[in-house]
Automatic annotation (TrEMBL):
Protein known as: PD-(D/E)XK motif protein
Pfam families registered for this protein in UniProt: DUF4420
InterPro entries per the UniProt record, alphabetical: DUF4420
Amino acid sequence: MRLVQEIRRGFASLRNGKALPLKEVDAYPAYVLRMGTSYGVVIEVSSDVKINERFSNVRYVTEEYEIDGRQANFLYLSSDMEHLRNEFANICGAFVDPGEKGKEREKIEKAPLKWWEQMKELLGNRNIDTSPYNVLGEMVAYYYLFTNGKLVNWIGQINGSVDFESRDTDYEVKSTTMRYDSMIQISSQFQLQGGKDIKIFFLRFEESAHGKSIDDLAEMLVTAGVDRNKIEESLICGGYEKYSTGRSRKYKLLEMRLYDVNERFPTIIKERFADYGIPQNVVKINYTIDLDGLDYNDLHISLI
């Protein structure tokens, strides 16, 4: 309890950009740290450890800091919820407590992500997105479009109404890991409506050690000529910052289709409500389309 109290005092007294050594764990160095609007605790880890995770209002990230006159790689457990700092101090205490003969500290140094996963499970929280294949699908579609000479902007991860847009065509990307299901979700009655041609990519994946990851596709896009900063901006907006674990999960592409959203494609658009109009107070319609039986082009792409 004395460790938690020391952490709380540090949270209350520290100024921005300052670190305070924790005396209760003197033999196993740890510090209270304030950086900008965030506050938390840090421990030093090996320089090859790279982590960038978050859930709710908590971050778990490695950063280079100069503390006590020495530059090193630190693992920073932080929050920006100032009114909950006393409660957060309890989690920080569990993180920096070295345990008997430093055994708990050794566990974190050897497997820092395991501690993070156990802590999230204990608190009953879930990842924001446990399905990186959705973002991977957009990146595969981007690679296909770009390498086939299509000039598009990737806007889906930056709250765009579609995933990709060009001067004359909008593209939506739908991905699944279901082996046989070909259902797609449409998030609003106007998602497939606009003044341009609209096309839908449908990709089927399975998780596999022999597949490709978000990081793999990022490098392929850069090699093909896409600006790395634009890729990273979209990934950050989608919750996949550099070194986050979802970026390394690998999926094998089983199938890739391209559908034209034309008069034969089943959609809900305002013109089809011309006679009666959309009922008053209905502000959003989500619906599911079964792609089975609809015309499509079977696409082939090399991800080697």
